[in-house]
Amino acid sequence: MMKTMRLWFACVFGLALSMVFGWSNGFFAILLPTFIIARADHFNISLINQMVLGIVWVSLEVNFITGFLQPYPWLMTVAVAILFMSKCIAMTKPSGYLFGFTGLLVGSIALNFMSYSSFDNEEFTLTLWVSAFAIYPICGLAYYLFSEPALEAGHEVDHEPEPAKSQPRMCPCSTTILACYDKQPWGGLSPC
Q1: Dihedral through CA 60, CA 63, CA 68, CA 74, nearest 10?
Q2: Residue 86 pLDDT more than 80?
Q3: Nearest CA to 134 among 59, 28, 39?
Q4: Taking CA atoms, which of 31, 32, 125, 190 is between 20 and 30 Å from 6?
Q5: What is the largest CA-CA distance in the chain?
Q6: Which of 31, 41, 53 has the alpha carbon at shortest distance from 138?
């Protein structure tokens, strides 16, 4: 329940910030903190740092690519392919997942918007950076106001027992098949 409240608070507070300050692309102030809150049950500064660094880095990369390579579509295509490949590789490692994910998300949105000649790259980039740095107070307040209740020393949380380490876990299909057949003395299988 507290995670739901944190997500709700991040959406509402991000929307309020973007409306009060008049950010033209304020949806990032709503979207970005929800990724952090959805992934972590407690305030995790390293996840936020990874996301902010990923956003700043990919926005610089996209500005560089569109600024220098937009007149050359084939070179731009190769550069974007390399950019997205690097983000996909980052996503394969748990420590770099958020860096790669935000790179793909923000990079694809930025490349799409920046392909229009009338689009203001500077305003978009600055709004994106401000939205990225707004993750710190939004998540901080969300985790502070809606923290998980502390467990009392005398009460234990009921957990399901974990399966024994020596027995491999089987998929439901194979468990059902094995339960329906008995092993016969001659080595054959017969239905139950």
Answers
A1: 100
A2: yes
A3: 28
A4: 125
A5: 80
A6: 31
Beta strands in the chain (DSSP E): 181-183, 189-191
28, 32, 34, 40 alpha-carbon torsion, rounded to 10°: -170
Residue 158 is given by DSSP the state -
Tokens, residue 141: 């307040």
Q: How far is CA 146 from the centre of its chain?
A: 21
**Tokens 């392919």 map to which residue?**
81
Chain centroid, CA 9 distance in Å:
18
Tens of pLDDT along 3-37?
899 999 999 999 999 999 988 888 899 999 998 99
Q: Tell me which amino acid residue 80 is.
A: V
CA distance 24 to 126: 11
- Whether the model clears a pTM of 0.85, i.e. scores above it, the answer is no
